[in-house]
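Hello again,

I reread your note about wanting to compare the complex against the isolated chains. To keep things tidy I'm splitting this into two emails, and this first one only covers the full assembly. Below are the input lines as submitted, including protein chains and any nucleic acid or small-molecule components. They are followed by the predicted structure of everything together. The single-chain runs will come separately.
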Amino acid sequence: MSVSLIDVSTYLPGEPIPADYYAQFAESDDLRDNVMFKAPKFRHHVGEDETTIDMVERAAAGLIERHGHDTIAGVDILITHAQMADVPFYGGGGGMAHRLGMKPNWVLDLHNGGCAAFVLGLKVARNLIESGEGRTALIAVAQNAAGQIFDQPGVRRKAQASVPGDGAAVGLVTLSDESPILDIECRTYGEYAGDMTLSVDPPRKWWQPGPGEGSIGFTESKITKVLARGNRQVPEVSYAVCDRIGVKPKDLDLLVTNQPNRAFLRNWRQALELPKERHRDTFEDCGNLFAAGIPVNLDRAITEGQLKRGDVVMMSAFAHAGDFAGAAAVRWGGRG
Amino acid sequence: MSLPALEDITAEIDGVIRVETFPREKATPIIMEMMRSVYPHDEVFGTYCTVNDYVDCPPDELYEWLSDTRCLEEWTYSLRGFEETEEPGLWVAYDKLGGDTGSPIYTRTVANPDSRTIDYHCAWDQGKHLWMIYLMRIIDAQLVFDKPGSVVLWTNCHHPFYDKNPYPETAPPKRPVWVGDFWDMFGAGHLLELKNLKAIAEYRHHNGLTVKPDWMK
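Full-complex prediction:
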């Protein structure tokens, strides 16, 4: 028996926020014309009092509708990833399990997966299920940085603030042959872990009292390095999976990736020799969805009939400044 | 005081990107637009075919070997039977890629020991117009990699004669191929030959042999 990704459902908070929102705050910013930071037309922002638990609950509504509440309540393995934990000390895994009415044997919070967390979650889910630790896993990812850290009064004046968008997604993984996970490749590049920084001016640790807004990002000198790493890593992990499953990249039916900016989207599909029509993204509507990018794009492709039963979909992404990358291929079996 | 750079030109020249007119915030997006995951083969190897490698042997010894035309008998894939013609410095051999019997290939090596440049001026079939030019340069790896050894840079330019034989009357009758038919594989083919060069030179150096063999001295 295989392990299958049988369904995904997603949630985008609130009404779309147009690029104009940022124009009122914009300051002259050297990076505004940079292809890495060119604003998408729209993005969503998490509500002011909305938690990652709320987001995951709302994302799960689609799964509950299609598979019944008992299926979700009966999940053995809950794997979560929140871009910004509601409370850094303990994360949101326990609270999400409780909200969804689960009593899972396993609750794992994958902070390191970053934009590739859904792929990492698939790998953990598959391996746990294969080892007999459960029959059903739920992967829950919540990206909530756009309406929070990127919407601080000082940060939202910067060009980079308009690129992120918030969203959440859940994926249901079960022991079945319906939509088999064909293979997964995850690679950690720990040497780049420190290249994404949370900087505060004047400097302080994130938990220390003091003035100045915390800002996530790279220095301009690191931007080209991050671009070069992303350019390399996503095709590399995708090719690794393609080699093992015996499918040429250009024969993939669908590619969904994280979507940090337009440059990466173009470069990755060129590297995999895929036309734009087979690389589904939601960048213009949703911006950079971080870890939610893969499942949101996959959900769109399924809902709109782009991904058909029997198609092979490749999901690939890299995280942060290039400290992690992953790719997973699934032969889609339809929504049943 | 700054130098009067470009003072003779009053117009703004299209395509010139200098910090005065393109400060970093303008230049960086241009650079990033140019950075890709992959580059089409033709963009990389279409007009200029460049291959490079590091070779673990002293640069002057490598130069001594490579500046002797007969070294091509050793490290090339298919050039064999070098003999000097009546014209001093002009050698003829057979390129075994050129049909059943091979094609005559003429070579004159122009080398400069100070810059360690070695240019093989070659042509198939005739020795009057040597238009296939293999431009090589050996660099002391100590300077560029901070370690002993040599770096070999090798470039060919896509001369129009690769696409059309200018001297068909000199070709052997009924030869099925022309050297330019292979241009698209030069990137791979030259790299293969550069690996030959590296393996042979390193073997000799590591085994106490001179890089230029006795038979060539």
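For quick reference: Residues 141 and 147 of chain B are 6 Å apart (CA to CA).

B.
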